């Protein structure tokens, strides 16, 4: 089954690499106009070129998603460039894992507050289009973590916040859902780095995935696109786990 998003306007926060890149390209291949933002200019420019090459409108902006003013400015500029907003994907993460001041600050400022701020800024446009929001959480939000307690906690917060957003936006016809990926390996990502370094964590994690492999970013993108599509028109407030059964072990 292929998705059809021709004429739709999609914003992807944290859209330059990994899962965000796969989501942005997935929507573009389905005909959507796509605006992305990220902090690193190099990957941002490379992904913009890939999107534009698909023949859709593409916009890319360097943005520190931990900065509220920059988030608001990006949403406004992206809406202006695309002529509105039909879908907002909140994918960015500060990857604040440890139980430290720095770990909590990174997770709260990017994973949480960037989602809050981008959603708030996009709300007037989404209400006009009766669009949807897709938040990116993690299976870490469903279980305790000794290794990355701050990361797990903020991802659990996003699962709960998705439900609150869904209830708040429903009277305006705007749906809000989330995806919770398991361990996803992509070029330059943390799991690839661990595999190449021979870290025991990679092998131990792989052994707990029933399908015997790490997930791919495109497999998460497909579910995100489903949630934003008319096929999910009666789905809101849900978080879909995309982990190959990893949580079952």
From TrEMBL:
Gene3D superfamilies: NAD(P)-binding Rossmann-like Domain (3.40.50.720)
Family membership: Belongs to the short-chain dehydrogenases/reductases (SDR) family.
SUPFAM superfamilies from the UniProt entry: NAD(P)-binding Rossmann-fold domains (SSF51735)
The protein, known as: SDR family oxidoreductase
Keywords: Oxidoreductase
């Amino acid at each position: 089954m292929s998705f059809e998003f021709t004429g739709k306007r999609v914003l992807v926060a944290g859209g330059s690499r990994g899962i965000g890149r796969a989501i942005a390209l997935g929507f573009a291949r389905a005909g959507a106009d796509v605006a992305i933002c990220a902090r690193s200019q190099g990957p941002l420019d490379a992904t913009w070129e890939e999107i534009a090459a698909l023949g859709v409108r593409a916009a890319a902006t360097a943005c520190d998603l931990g900065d509220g003013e920059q988030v608001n400015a990006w949403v406004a500029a992206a809406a202006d460039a695309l002529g509105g907003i039909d879908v907002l994907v909140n994918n960015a993460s500060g990857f604040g894992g440890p139980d430290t001041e720095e770990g909590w600050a990174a997770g709260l400022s990017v994973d949480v507050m960037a989602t809050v701020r981008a959603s708030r800024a996009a709300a007037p446009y989404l209400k006009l289009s009766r669009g949807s929001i897709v938040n990116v959480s993690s299976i870490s939000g469903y279980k305790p973590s000794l290794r990355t307690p701050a990361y797990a906690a903020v991802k659990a917060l996003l699962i709960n916040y998705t439900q609150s957003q869904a209830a708040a936006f429903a009277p305006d016809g705007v749906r809000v859902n989330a995806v919770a990926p398991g361990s996803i390996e992509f070029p330059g990502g943390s799991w690839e780095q661990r595999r190449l370094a021979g870290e025991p964590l990679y092998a131990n994690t792989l052994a707990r995935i029933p399908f015997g492999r790490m997930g791919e970013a495109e497999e998460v993108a497909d579910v995100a696109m489903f949630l934003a599509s008319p096929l999910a028109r009666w789905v809101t407030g849900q978080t879909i786990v995309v982990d190959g059964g990893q949580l079952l072990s």
